Amino acid sequence: MRGLIGSVDLVSSIDVARFKEVLGHFATGVVVVTAATPDGPVGFTCQTFGALSLEPTLISFSAVSASHSWPRARDVGVVGVNILSDDQEAIARVFGKSGTDKFAGIGWSPAPNGAPLIDGALAHLEGRIEFVSTQGDHDVVVVAVEYALSHHGVPLVFYRGGFTSLD
Fold first, then answer.
1. What are the φ and ψ backbone dihedral angles of 43, each rounded to 5 degrees?
2. How far apart are CA 69 and CA 117, in angstroms?
3. For the chain, what is the total number of helices (H) and then of strands (E)?
4. Is residue 102 part of a domain?
5. CATH number, residue 130
6. Which of 64, 76, 101, 119 is most deeply packed, by most CB within 10 A?
7. Is there a contact between 161 and 24 (Cβ–Cβ < 8 Å)?
8. Residue 78 domain-assigned?
């Protein structure tokens, strides 16, 4: 790597497969980001998610810029984030695919500003998109949280290319 922090002049000799293998050693939670569009609900599975600020209440996530669902959610401006529980691997897999009716057979209810909240999720957040920056093949998204709710349970975790639980 060459360049200074903040520089766009970076060079990497790491191939994609090696990069994914190394990053796979970092366990992450699994969320489904959702939005209520005029054409119906949309959503996608995301593992690049986290808290950004307590004051103001901000979260961030990354979405594939060229995906089918993310541009539709971005256009709405309000998103829901559903933190999945350890018994929701099937939901993570459904929302991780393109071209399917992802909400078929999935129970959900609208959050205060309309974003779909998936039944049985460990926690829910809803907020307004404040900032989007394209970095590589992903959009980095900052959301101002306006609604938060949690439940008891164990989170679904993604580690070394597969789903697992903390139990």
1. -170, 165
2. 16
3. 3, 12
4. yes
5. 2.30.110.10
6. 76
7. yes
8. yes
Select, from the ranges 6-10, 102-106, 115-119, the one with the highest average predicted confidence (pLDDT): 115-119
Across 75-152, the runs of DSSP E, i.e. the strands, are 78-83, 108-110, 116-118, 123-135, 138-150
* Encoded tokens for 70: 């993310």
For tokens 């979405």, the residue is 63
Q: What are the CA-CA distances from residue 11 to residues 5, 7, 8, 112, 135 (Å)?
A: 13, 11, 9, 45, 15
Element (H, E) at 103: none
Q: Strand runs (DSSP E) across 12-102, as ranges?
A: 28-29, 31-37, 40-46, 49-53, 58-64, 78-83
Rounded-to-integer distance, Cα 77 and Cα 8, Å = 28
Q: What pLDDT does 6 receive?
A: 52
**127-151: pLDDT as tens digits:** 999 999 999 999 999 999 999 999 9
45 three-class SS:
strand
Q: Mean pLDDT, the chain, as a whole number?
A: 90
Q: Which residue type does 46 have?
A: C
Phi, psi of 95 (to 5 degrees): -75, -10
- Number of separate domains in the chain: 1
Distance CA 21, CA 11 (A): 19
Angle in degrees, CA 102, 159, 115, rounded to 5: 30
